[in-house]
Amino acid sequence: MSRNPLLETHELPPFAEIRAEHVVPAVETLLDENRATIDRLAQQASKTPPTWESFAVPLEAVSDRLSQAWSPVSHLNGTMNTPELREAYQACLEKLSAFGTWVGQHEGLFHGWQALKEGDAWATLDSAQQRTVDNALRDFRLAGVDLPADKKARYGEIQSRLSTLSNQYSNNVLDATQAWHKDIDSEEELAGVPSSALDTLKALAEAKGVAGYRITLDFPSFFPVVSYADSRELRREVYTAFVTRASDQGPGEGTFDNAPIMEEILALRQELAKLLGFKTYADFSLTTKMAESPEQVLDFMGDLARRAVPQAKEEFAELSAYARDELGIDTLEPWDIAYASEKLRETRHAISQEQLRPYFPAPHVIDGLFHVVERLYGVRVEEDIDASRYHADVRYFQITENGQPIAGFYLDLYAREGKRGGAWMADCRVRRQTDNGIQRPVAFLTCNFTAPVGGKPALLTHDEVTTLFHEFGHGLHHMLTKQHIADISGINGVAWDAVELPSQFMENYCWEREGLNLLAKHVDTGEALPSELVERLQAAKNFQSAMGMVRQIEFSVFDLRLHYELSAPKARDVQALLDEVRSEVSVVPAVSFNRFQNSFAHIFAGGYAAGYYSYKWAEVLSADAWSAFEEAGIFDADTGQRFRREILEQGGARDAAELFVAFRGREPSVEPLLRHSGIRAA
C-alpha cells in the first residue's frame, strides 16, 4: 500500500500531504489495530489483575492515535469541504460509529475497568485516575454494556444511523446556504448597506466572475443586508431565504429539506434512551451534566423568563413605536427587527457596529487578545510561520511559558466557500502523558468573519471581536489544562452545562476600558477608541438585552421540551411545539414560513441535544466568576492565576460545581448575570 500520512506520527497534522483517498484506508487500518489491542488487553485483564500502567495507559494510546488521524479529517470536512472529502468522511462515519458501539459494549473491557476499580490497584490511583475509571464505567452503562444481545445490536444500529443522519443534516444546511445567492447590479439597490459590507459583496461577485454585487446566506453577507439595507423588499427576500434553509419553504423549497431527518433523529433518540432504561432522551442527556433533571432545567429557564419577558415586552413596544414614528413601518415584521434595532441603537446611543469597525482591524485585535491572555495567565503567544497549514488564511501559534512551548492552535477567521458557518473550537490533539513525555495540546479555532478585501486588513465588528474572545476561551480551557489523562484533559470530561464558563468569561474583556485599550486602534490613524465611544458602547451593552435573553430561553426550552415531551414527532409536531414555546416567551413576531428548526445544527448536528440550556446555565457561572475580577481588578494577577488553577487547569478532573466553589469560595448566584444583563429585579 502507498504511504499514508494519516498513519504516521506527526507533531502537527501534515495538511499539505493529506488527500481524500487517504481517509478510508487509514481509518480502517487503525480500527483493525485498535480492535486487536482492545481484545488483547481485555483478555490479559481477565487473567491478571489490571493496573493503570498495564491497562489504562495502552488503551489511551491506541485511542489517541485514532483521534489524531481523524481530527484533521473532521476539521477539513468542516472548513475545506469538497465532494471527494465529504464522500470519504461520510464513508467513515458508519465504521467509527460501529467501533464506538463495539468498544462501549465490550464486556471484557468493561470487566477490566471494573477489576481496576475493585482490585488492590485502586488504592494506588490518584484522584484523576480514579475519576477516569468512574467515568469509563458510567459510559459503559450508557453505551448499553448491560443490555441483552438483541438490544445491544439495536443500540448499535441506532447510533450508526444517528451518526449518518446528523452528518446529512449538517450537509443539507451547508448545501442550502450555498445554493442561494442574489446578484445586484447597482449600488442604489443596496442603499444603507455600509461600505465595508459592499466591498465584501463586490468581492463575492468578482470571485464568481459576475458584475456588481452578490448576496449570499453566509453570515458576513446576509447579516449586513438585513441589518442595514433600506429596501424593505430586499430585506424580506434575503431574510426569507435564510430562515427557510433546508426546509419545505422558501426559494429552495424541498431541495435540501431536513424535516424527515429531524423526525428520524428525534424518534431514534427517544428509542435509544428507553433502550437504556431512561424515561426520555432529556433524562439520558442530563446524566453527564450539572443539572439533575429536566424539571430543574425547565424551572431554571422559567425563572429567567419570569424576570426577562416583561422587560423584553417593554423593549419591543419601544422598538415598534420607534419604527412607526421614525421609520414609517406601521407593523414590524421579522425582516424589520434587526434594521429597526440598529436605527434605534444609533439614535439612542449614537453608536453602531459599523461605526466601531475601523477601530478593530483584525491583526491588532488578535495582538490585543494575546496581550489579555499574557497579562491574565503569564503565558506568551508566538506565531510559527513554518507549521503546515490547510489554507492561506490560516495561521498557527504556540503558547509558551517560561520560554517553553506548552500548547498550540490554528486560527481560521474568515468565511469562504466550502466552510460551514458559525464559530467553534475543536481539539486537534489533547494533552496527555506519553512514553516520550507530555503531549502538548493543540486546538482548532474557527470563525466566519468578513475576509480582508483589496489588500486592507479585515475590520471586525464588536460582535465579531466578542465571538473571537469566546472561542479563544474554549481554546484556553483545552490548552492550559494540566491534566495528564486524555479523558479528563481540557474540555474532556467537563459537564456540558459548564463547558461554556471559560468562553463566556473571556467575552467580558471586550467591554472594559482596560481591555479595549489593548484591542482597539483605528485602522488609518492608529488612535485608541475614544472615551466617548467607549462610554456609548458600554451604555449600549444591554440594549435590548431582555429581548436577547428571551430568544435564548426560547431556543433552550424548545430543545429540552422537544427531547422530553415528544416521543416520535412529525415535522408538524415540532413546529407546533416551537409555536407554543414562542407564544409563552417570545416577544417578536414570527412568520408561518420560518423553519428555524431545520437549520438548528446545535441540537441536530452538534452536541447540544437536550443541552442548549447550557449557554444560560454556564452564563450564571461565568457572570459570577467575572464578578470576582470586578472586585479585585480585571487584570489582577492573583485572581487570574486562581481562575487558571481552579478552572482551566482542572479540565474534567473534578465536578464542575466543586471547581466553581474552589474558585469563588461559595455557590454560584444568578444575581451577577441579571446585573450584567441589565435585567431588573422581578
Task: Summarize it.
This protein has 682 residues and is of the alpha+beta class. The protein has helices spanning 20-47, 52-79, 83-104, 107-118, 127-142, 149-179, 195-207, 219-228, 232-243, 259-275, 281-285, 294-326, 334-349, 353-356, 362-377, 462-479, 501-507, 513-519, 531-539, 545-562, 571-585, 601-604, 614-632, 637-648, 656-664, 671-676; strands at 181-184, 213-216, 380-383, 395-401, 404-414, 424-429, 432-434, 437-439, 442-449.
Describe this entry's structure for a reader.
- The chain is α+β, with helices and mostly antiparallel strands.
- The protein folds into four domains: about 5-145, Glutathione S-transferase Yfyf (Class Pi), Chain A, domain 2; about 180-245, no CATH class; about 270-330 and about 545-680, Orthogonal Bundle (Neurolysin, domain 3); about 360-540, Neurolysin, domain 3, CATH 1.10.1370.40.
- Helices cover about 55% and strands about 5% of the residues.
- It has 26 helices and nine strands.
- The chain has helices spanning about 20-45, 50-80, 85-105, 105-120, 125-140, 150-180, 195-205, 220-230, 230-245, 260-275, 280-285, 295-325, 335-350, 355, 360-375, 460-480, 500-505, 515-520, 530-540, 545-560, 570-585, 600-605, 615-630, 635-650, 655-665, 670-675, and strands spanning about 180-185, 215, 380-385, 395-400, 405-415, 425-430, 430-435, 435-440, 440-450.
- Strands 3-4-5-9-6 form a five-stranded mixed sheet. A two-stranded antiparallel ribbon has the order 1-2.
- A hairpin with a 2-residue loop joins strand 7 (about 430-435) and strand 8.
- Helix 1 (about 20-45) packs antiparallel against helix 2 (about 50-80).
- It is globular, with a radius of gyration of 25 Å.
- The protein starts with 19 loop residues before the first helix and ends in a 6-residue tail after the last helix.
- The mean pLDDT is about 95.
